[in-house]
Target: Flagellar biosynthetic protein FliQ
Amino acid sequence: MNDAAVLQIARTALEVATLVAGPVLAVALLVGLVVALAQTLTQIQEATLSFVPKLAAIALVLLFTGHWMLQELTTMTTQLYSQIPHLVQTL
Model:
């Protein structure tokens, strides 16, 4: 296995991780921003107030996109396993 193969595997893993984590992180950021704005406007500074809406929003995102996320991870893992004989031959 040469350096190019290792870099390609690492690049693919980072791309898939970013793609899979993106929707969850984006929703958590958006909900956190909205709750923080609401807390600022109402002057309610309760730490647990931002936790529950984020948790509910993340659960909904995982409910709707979880199958797609699992499919992306499975596809990458299957492709990586199928490359093992080729990678071992280049040793």
User: Anything to note?
Assistant: Residues 3-89 form one domain. The chain has one domain: 3-89.
